[in-house]
Write a structure and sequence with these properties.
heterodimer, A: mainly beta, 7-stranded mixed beta sheet, 4-stranded antiparallel beta sheet, 0% helix, B: mainly beta
Chain lengths: 107, 118
């Protein structure tokens, strides 16, 4: 199975900050990667698909990049509602695999 | 409104069985792959299984192969997960999700909790 390694595991930041989360695949996955946001007690929400495409309705401060094995999720200017846990997911092959998550906390 | 609603979770003893259901509404269920994803208490997300629109292809994470079966009834707009030989490590919130082509899992249910304990 392809392993997805996210970094950092946790991150403290302030409103207005620019933050970047990284996801590395153990083998090439083209651009078959999505980013999901999850808030406590809630279902995950799709933010980015195909590594860099913004899901409908998601604010433009979220962006994704990368291809092959290295991917990033960037939030250009943190808003209070962005404090959550973020996961990457590869759907290049089966079994699909998530990264371990990055918890974004308020500084 | 596009919606997925899971049901069927509960407390079950190790070795027992449980069948989860996911009722879909607001979209043409038969046109989409569907997924199950789970989250153990305090842990991250784990993809569990996928099923093709007509049920002809099914895929599972290794840890549930031979124990869990994903299925669907397009006439009832419903997705299922039959879970047998349950273990403590299967304790989790189970989510169903719609798979929109290359977009991925774009619609999620609210989750149903499965607890495996004696």
């Amino acid at each position: 199975a392809i392993q997805m390694t996210q970094s950092p595991s946790s991150l403290s930041a302030s409103v207005g900050d620019r933050v970047t989360i990284t996801c590395r695949a153990s083998q090439g996955i083209r651009n078959d990667l999505g980013w999901y946001q999850q808030k406590p007690g809630k279902a995950p929400k799709l933010l980015i698909y195909a590594a860099s495409s913004l899901q409908s309705g998601v604010p433009s401060r979220f962006s994704g990049s990368g291809s092959g094995t290295d991917f990033t999720l960037t939030i250009s200017s943190l808003q209070p509602e962005d404090f959550a846990t973020y996961y990457c997911l590869q759907d290049y092959n089966y079994p699909h695999t998530f990264g371990q998550g990055t918890k974004l906390e308020i500084k | 409104e596009v919606q997925l609603v899971e049901s069927g979770g509960g407390l079950v003893q190790p070795g027992g069985s449980l069948r989860l259901s996911c009722a879909a509404s607001g979209f043409t269920f038969s046109s989409y792959w569907m997924s199950w994803v789970r989250q153990a208490p305090g842990k991250g997300l784990e993809w569990v299984a996928n099923i093709k629109q007509d049920g002809s292809e099914k895929y599972y994470v290794d840890s549930v192969k031979g124990r869990f079966t994903i299925s669907r009834d397009n006439a009832k707009n419903s997705l299922y997960l039959q879970m047998n030989s349950l273990r403590a490590e299967d304790t989790a919130v189970y989510y169903c999700a719609r798979v929109e082509g290359e977009v991925g899992m774009d619609v999620w249910g609210q989750g149903t909790t499965v607890t495996v304990s004696s």
